[in-house]
Structures are given as structure tokens and as C-alpha cells.
Description:
Structural class: mainly alpha
Largest sheet: none
Helix content: 55-70%
Distance between the termini: 58 Å
Number of strands: 0
Amino acid sequence: MAAPEPAAWRAYERHDYATAAKLYAEDARKGDRLAQFNYAMMLFRAEANETERGEAVRWLRRAADAGLMQAQYNMGLLYENGRAVRKSLTEATTWFERAAEQGHTDAQVSAATQYFLGRGAPRDYAKAAYWYREAANGGDVGAQYILASMYEKGDGVAKDLRIAIYWYTRAAQQGDAVALVKARALAREHEAEPR
């Protein structure tokens, strides 16, 4: 039997934002990291009557510091875009990696991209490949395509057309038409190679 939904969530679903915000704030003050996150999101969306600047960031940071991976990812986005905090690609990378280490697929893609581009982190194709692989294993079609390309070219990984074909095929199975073309072309090329 599923646990009953918290009163704050039921209020939010009824669009009773005042009650939801009050209840989330109460639970947030008690250290509930999910309530901290939900309260922060309500503050960011202006669904709560909070006038003190910085409250949303403060609650989001508390949830992130408490290990809530979605809050960590959102902190990365704030720093990446300079929204409500001073823009810092280095801070963004730190938060993306914290969430990525817990299996947050979007954070894995973001961390990989930071290393791939050398944005907020030193350019490191091996680390980029690691995080793209994690996201690809999690089903992210973009990561599957990029990882295939990395194996095709030997960027950060040993060049391996077999593995490139595998990842292009996985992306194609999710509807990426370009990946299908790449997989077929590489398969023909791979077959033509002398053994």
C-alpha cells in the first residue's frame, strides 16, 4: 500500500498555494530536504508570498547540501545561467557532478558537457566520455549519440567502430534518424575493413 500523500502536496495539487507554501515551509524548517526543495521551487515560481530576497536559493541550497540530487542539479543550473546567484561555471560543474554521482541523468549530461567543452572545468575528453556513458546507459539519446561519436573519433576513449555502431544504434532505436544513418555507414565501413 502506498504511503499517503503529504498535506502540502495535496494543497499544491488543489492550487491552494498559500497552504502548500505554509506546510512546506514548516517541514523545511524541520530539516525535510524534499520540503526544502519544494518550498524553494514555489518561491522561484512566485507561488508563495515570500518577499525576502534569496530565500529560494537558501532553501534550494539546504536541500542540495542535504544530498537531494534534483536540488543539486537545480543549483548547477542556477550557477550555469547566473539566475539568482552570480554566474559561475565552476560552481555549476561542482553541483552537476554531485547530482551526477547519484545517477541524475540530466546532471550527467551537463557534467559531461562541461568537461567536453572545457567550460567550468578543464577540457577532459576522458571525463566527458565517462559522464556521457553514464547518461547513455541511463537512456539519454543525446548522450548515446555523442558517446558514439567519441568512439568513432577516439576522443577521450580508444577509437572503436564496433562500440560507436552500438551507441549510434541505441540512439537510432530511440528515434534519432541521424544516428541511424551513422550506424549504417559505420557498419558498412567496419565490414570493409581488412581483418
